[in-house]
Structures are given as C-alpha cells and as structure tokens.
Design brief:
The chain is mainly α and about 130 residues long. The protein has 2 domains: about 1-80, Arc Repressor Mutant, subunit A (Orthogonal Bundle); about 80-110, no CATH class. It has helices at about 25-40, 50-55, 60-65, 95-110, and strands at about 1-5, 10-15, 80, 90. The chain starts with a strand and ends in a 23-residue tail after the last helix.
Length: about 130
C-alpha cells in the first residue's frame, strides 16, 4: 500500500483503490453526483453550463460522468458529446452504437484461436510426444 496526498483535500491517505482521492473526498464526490443526477432529472432541458453553475461542479467532472455512462443527456437537451471514433454526437459514453459494435466485433475476432489437437493416447510408450500441425 502506498501513502499519497489526496488531490481533493491534500490529506495523506492509503492509496489502493486507483483513485487519487481519500475516502471522505470520494464520498463527497458521490454525494455531488447524486445531487447533479437529481437536478438533471428535475431539469431535463438544462445545458451543461447551467448544470455546472447551479451545482458547483466543474464541466470536466460532468463530462467525465457522461463518458463513464453514469449520466446521460436527455433528448430535449441540445448538449451532446462527440464519439471518440467517428465524431457523431452522442448522449452518453465514449462511442456511438455503430462504433461500439465495430469495436466489439474487432475484439471478438482477435480472440479466435485455432483448435489445439489433443495428443493421441493410443501409444503407450513413455516417450515425449509432440502435437502434429
């Protein structure tokens, strides 16, 4: 375990979760997230600047939550983010549906391997055996 200074408050904490924040700052950030989520639910047409101002949250933090698919812009909202692959405007996440499908199929094809032939058990000699190609 590593001891670091919290990026939020500056206190020393045991760094082990992969986040540069102490547990109290993580809890405060989660509370802020729930506040923003409720605000967006109550004001579905609000823009990102208005949400950031009214809830005292940075625009970068809002975009991070949207990229993580924790928040989503409504259809009434004029706000959207660009797909990181093709640039199409999306409401949540990093990629549009078409790019997600393409990435999934590309990754699925990368893991296909040729079947491995089992060694024949007919020979009873204690010699080393090799698989034939």
């Amino acid at each position: 375990m590593e001891v670091r200074n919290c990026k939020g408050c500056g206190k020393l904490f045991n760094y082990s979760l992969g986040t540069p924040l102490c547990t109290s700052c993580v809890r405060a950030l989660e509370d802020k997230f729930h506040q923003v989520k409720q605000y967006i639910y109550d004001n579905p047409g609000a823009g990102i600047n208005q949400v950031a101002e009214d809830n005292e949250v940075s625009i970068q933090q809002l975009k991070k939550w949207v990229r993580e698919e924790r928040l989503e812009f409504s259809q009434e909202s004029a706000v959207g983010l660009a797909c990181e692959s093709c640039g199409k405007i999306i409401r949540t996440g990093r990629y549009c549906g078409l790019c997600k499908d393409k990435l999934a199929s590309d990754l699925g094809g990368a893991y296909k391997t040729a079947p491995v032939a089992e060694p024949s058990a007919t020979k009873a000699s204690p010699k080393m055996r090799f698989l034939e190609n």
